[in-house]
What we know:
By secondary structure, this protein is of the alpha/beta class. It folds into 4 domains: 2-124, 3-Layer(aba) Sandwich (Rossmann fold), CATH 3.40.50; 141-304, Rossmann fold (3-Layer(aba) Sandwich), CATH 3.40.50.300; 308-377, Orthogonal Bundle (Helicase, Ruva Protein, domain 3); 392-435, Arc Repressor Mutant, subunit A (Orthogonal Bundle). 47% of the residues lie in helices and 13% in strands. It contains 19 helices and 14 strands. It has helices spanning 10-22, 33-42, 59-69, 84-92, 105-124, 141-154, 170-179, 201-206, 223-226, 242-254, 280-285, 291-297, 311-328, 338-345, 352-366, 374-377, 392-410, 415-422, 426-435; strands at 2-6, 26-30, 47-51, 74-79, 97-100, 160-164, 189-192, 231-235, 256-257, 266-267, 271-276, 300-304, 335-336, 371-372. The strands form 4 sheets. A 5-stranded parallel β-sheet has the order 2-1-3-4-5, sandwiched between helices. Helix 1 links the parallel strand 1 (2-6) and strand 2. Helix 13 (311-328) crosses helix 15. The longest helix is centred in the first third of the chain and has 20 residues, at 105-124. The protein is globular, with a radius of gyration of 24 Å. The model is unreliable at 124-133 and 383-390 (pLDDT under 50).
Amino acid sequence: MKILVVDDERAQREALAGFLRSLEHDVAIADSAQTALAHLYKNPADVVLTDFKMPYMTGNDLLKEIRGRYPGMVVLIMTAYGTVEVAVEAMKAGAWDFVTKPVDLDQLELQLQTIEKFIEQRQAAALPAEISNSRFIAIDAVMQNILVKARRVASTDASVLITGETGTGKEELAYYIHSHSRRADQTIQAVNCAALPPNLVESELFGHVKGAFTGATRDRVGHFEGADGSTLFLDEIGDLPQDMQVKLLRFLQNSEFQPVGSNEMRQSDVRIIAATNVDLQLAVEQGDFREDLYYRLDVIRFHLPPLRERPKDVKVLTRNFSAEFKERHGRPDLTLSGEAAEALSNYAFPGNVRELRNIIERAVVLADDTTIKVADLELHMEPPRSQSGSGLIDSVQTMEQELITKSLKECGGNQSECARRLGISERVLRYKLQKYNLR
């Protein structure tokens, strides 16, 4: 097996690596969690054996990162502080097992034998080899073309804009591009622009100096400076305030930024990957997004189709998520019934890949025997529409479409004003526009 040993104590990691190599495993070492993540981008491992107590990022922090990026990877936590609380925390976060220092090498060998058998069983019903170790899993022809283009683009520093519905995998594609770039040895930084507090957006992005405002008791490094030499992923870029759009544009033009409260300009070598689930061209037309910034971001564009248009991916993702959650929740004998598989293939997935992932985890947890049935999936299927179209659901949806269309016309297409008149948020309005395919 490929094993990565992570420990900030040199003697410990080298001793473990020597023992594991004597068992004929392919072993690599890392002196920190950050180094481990950089290594895993280009060299996926079967097993990560990591110390718990390390500076900056603990073993538990590393575990959570790995679970999010590489769901199938097995993680063993080592600690000299073998308390029940630490063990429970690690197991809840998804650790395979817990190893107490000093490590019992015989016990470790037995644990690895168990893990190796599990991996062999999983590979017997495995995903295609070319996607088994990828964070971005797709076999649909359109998606495979996107991956080919993404690998080509990754070797450059061109700005990338990723569009698509919520949950289609925009962040995963950003990580995929970064992991195949010359910056892969640096940790990618991700920012959700929609989640930033309005009064702290500038400080979060560009940092601030001590005394810049009330509560600024020390200098703070922003994401643009923190991502120096790496990639900065700006999710929900359409929600970035207009004054920040100007500052982002300036950065894209000359790689310069100015921390809040500072009189000096600073530079940072950052590659920008942005993503949005809204129509930025429409936002430009409505004056909500700067046209010059749009063209700066839209050097290379990827549009991710919704999951309902990728039936082959539904099957492969279902297998992958099932393997992940059966392992995590200790239900290796669980199988998916034919009826449940058919229900998934006929489902529209309004929440896309993210929704499928949640559906499978819930089903694995709730199934009361060894088979996942349709009821365990808890799919929110729309009731069949009557031939006359006079059902309550149809009537309400028709009225809703007509009301939104009328309000948009009265507002001259201004979504902010339309949302205000309808008494809903702009986010809800954008969802309704996509749901009813209104433009």
